[in-house]
Every structure is written in C-alpha cells, then in structure tokens.
Specification:
This is YaaL family protein. The protein has about 80 residues and is mainly α. It has two helices and no strands. Helix 1 packs antiparallel against helix 2. The chain is elongated, with a radius of gyration of 18 Å.
Length: about 80
C-alpha cells in the first residue's frame, strides 16, 4: 500500500493550521491595504486602492466565518490586555 490513511484528528489539525495561517496572512494584507489607502487619502485616493482594501476585508471576513464554523481558535492578539 503506497498511501496510508491519516487519522481524522490529524487531518483536521492540519486544515485548522492552514486556515489560521491564511487568515493571518489575509489580515496582514488587509491592514496593509488600509494603511496604503489612508496614506494616499490626502492625494485623492483612487478607487483601485479602495477596491483593493475592500477586497482584502471581504477575504478576511470570509475566512473568519469558515474558522467559526469549524470552531478554530487562533492566538490572542498581543494588543489585548487581559486583567
């Protein structure tokens, strides 16, 4: 037998890790697009920058909904202060 079937929990763990990595990458891309849009705002922002920021936001929210469906939890945001 060439291929060995992986246990279900291992497959889910790998899927969750890939999903979280994609979410973090998309969030960083969205933040970058927003910062670019803000930086160019004074120079009459083009609709392309606004569209790019909106697209990144929609990608992030879509991936976030998938993560909620699978009950995937990531790392705590370092900006949050717990008491």
């Amino acid at each position: 037998m060439l291929f060995r079937r992986q246990p279900k929990h291992e497959v889910e763990k790998k899927r969750n890790q890939r999903l979280l990595a994609t979410i973090y990458e998309t969030k960083a891309s969205w933040d970058h697009a927003r910062e670019t849009e803000r930086a160019v705002y004074e120079a009459n922002v083009s609709s392309e920058l606004q569209d790019r920021a909106h697209l990144q936001e929609q990608k992030y929210l879509y991936l976030y909904r998938i993560a909620r469906r699978y009950h995937v939890h990531g790392q705590l945001n370092q900006g949050i202060v717990s008491q």
